[in-house]
Write a structure and sequence with these properties.
By secondary structure, the chain is α+β, with helices and mostly antiparallel strands. It has 12 helices and 19 strands. The chain has 3 domains: 156 residues, Immunoglobulin-like, CATH 2.60.40.10; 138 residues; 139 residues, no CATH class. The strands form 4 sheets. Strands 9-4-3-12-13-14-16-15 form an 8-stranded mixed beta sheet. Strands 1, 2, 6, 7, 10 and 11 form a 6-stranded antiparallel beta sheet that branches. The radius of gyration is 23 Å and the shape is globular.
Length: 486
């Protein structure tokens, strides 16, 4: 959902968090790679036995500032003819505790093999220290976990000032050992909240849910939260579900470059995601760099219950992202563009396709289809797939499921692509993005306005499409989405 400041509220049937994928046997396409560029596999018997271990204990994250952190993988090569490693590190992340502000290194380790991996030992080596982290008793096939030592801060790793640091993550177990290298860019050793912003946040919480107060601490984890960072991506989550922040960071890393490449536009950095506890269940994006997943704590916990299985981690293992992530990142890239909000939602829904965004498509899902007067998909009234008449986007029915508006808006973009070609769609998006202006907020609201259909779409297509838009979706050339909403 595109969060429009000023009052446009469109209820959407969007599940909080990440796409959960049904699997009937692990798909080979989902394997991906370790460390973005490969992992060195060696015989487990060739590794040095581990003699010490530090117990992992989850903690909370610290209030963060807006600085950017990067984690990139150096190239490694296979040095042995042994079978490829099935357990290895996907990333080395920075983890900040919201209670103390202390930062440390977390290794995101995945098991891409067909069998459960038992007795794992994870070693994180940085310039001045090597930490051996106790692994869970087992790591199920097709799942991942975050490994860190809460008592080992960045200084203990020899990182006492900002810079670029080589980090190696070694995983021993399951018959082979893997070693993955990462270059981690650290801009902050610790993080601390802005006192005034934090005070405003606490005052807001006395009368509002966290999702209504988050603007006060947009880039900062507060007490009870954890922040994860990788390059220009960061995610903040309640400490008890911090694994969801790890997933979010990796999904954004997997899909944002692909979305930008496909659309031919570049969004701003850094990109920040926050998972908050609130009554509203869904996700929404504010212009440019922030998006939020909200819902009761039980919703977040249900996602974590899947962390010990393939379901939560399928997108990460496959180097992809969930459809929710792809949808919200599209909003962030567009920013304050002069595009009516419901067409913006339609574009973000159109971009959920794997071919456009690298999102993971759930096996067995029925793709939404479009025709002259309706879209085909799940009908909430009939509780089955059916052809559903288009919504009037100029005067939406307040009683209709909000997702109907999204699918109707998506079919606008499908019409443009099937009639005028993908290149025409991309030209329209690029021209719209070139006119970003903070005064646009889901619709045109100032005198010197730009009308999306009249001033961008029609000139690029070289034809007036308003006869079609009026007949199918109820709007004409000066449609802004402000009509009747403000």
């Amino acid at each position: 959902m595109l969060r429009v400041l000023g009052g446009l509220v469109v209820a959407a049937a969007i599940v909080v968090g990440l796409q959960l994928v049904s699997q009937s046997g692990q798909d080979s396409e989902a394997i991906g790679t370790f460390g973005e560029s490969g992992t060195t596999a060696t015989s487990a018997t060739d590794t040095t036995p581990v003699t010490t271990a530090v117990t992992t204990s989850p903690t909370t994250t610290s209030p963060a500032t807006t600085s950017t952190v990067e984690a990139e993988t150096t190239t490694t090569t296979t040095t042995t003819a042994l079978p490829p490693a099935t357990v290895g590190a996907k990333a080395a992340l920075l983890r900040y505790d919201g209670d103390s502000g202390v930062g440390t290194i977390e290794a995101a380790v995945c098991n891409v093999g067909p069998d459960q991996a038992d007795g794992l030992v994870v070693t994180i080596a940085a310039p001045a220290s090597t930490v051996v982290v106790d692994a869970p008793a087992s790591l199920p096939a097709g799942s991942c976990a975050g490994f860190f030592d809460a008592d080992t801060d960045l200084a203990a790793f020899g990182i006492i000032e900002p810079g670029v640091f080589a980090v190696t993550v070694e995983v021993d177990g399951g018959g082979v050992a893997s070693s993955s290298g990462f270059d981690v860019v650290v801009e902050e050793i610790t993080v601390a909240p802005d006192p005034e912003q934090h005070a405003a946040y606490q005052r807001c919480l006395t009368s509002e849910d966290a999702d209504a107060c988050e603007d006060h601490v947009r880039y900062q984890p507060v007490a009870g939260e954890v922040m994860k960072r990788d390059r220009e991506f960061q995610s903040i989550a309640p400490a008890e579900v911090e694994v969801l922040a790890t997933v979010s960071v990796l999904e954004m890393r997997n899909c944002l470059p692909r979305i930008e490449e496909f659309l031919g536009i570049t969004g701003p950095r850094p990109v920040s995601h926050r998972r908050v506890v609130g009554e509203y269940s869904g996700s929404y994006a504010s212009p440019y760099v922030n998006w939020t997943s909200s819902g009761p704590i039980e919703d977040h916990r249900r996602l974590v219950e899947n962390s010990g299985s393939w379901r939560l981690w399928q997108t990460v293992i496959g180097d992809r992202c969930g459809w929710v992530t792809a949808h919200e990142l599209t909003h962030l890239i567009l920013g304050d563009a002069p595009m009516p909000a419901l067409l913006n939602e339609g574009l973000a829904t159109w971009m959920e396709a794997a071919s456009r965004s690298n999102a993971w498509e759930q096996p067995g899902d029925v793709d939404v289809q479009c025709r002259d007067d309706a879209w085909f998909g799940w009908d909430w009234d009939l509780e089955e797939d059916a052809w559903v008449p288009y919504s009037n986007l100029l005067t939406p029915d307040p009683d209709a499921p909000g997702i109907y508006l999204y699918f109707t808006g998506m079919c606008f973009w499908d019409y443009l692509e099937t009639t005028y070609g993908t290149e025409s769609v991309l030209a329209i998006v690029q021209e719209t993005a070139s006119r970003r202006d903070p005064r646009f907020n889901g619709c045109s609201v100032f005198v010197e306005s730009v009308y999306f259909i009249r001033d961008i779409v029609n000139p690029i297509l070289g034809i007036d499409i308003t006869p079609v838009t009026e007949e199918r979706w109820g709007f004409g050339e000066t449609f802004t989405n402000c009509e009747g909403l403000y």
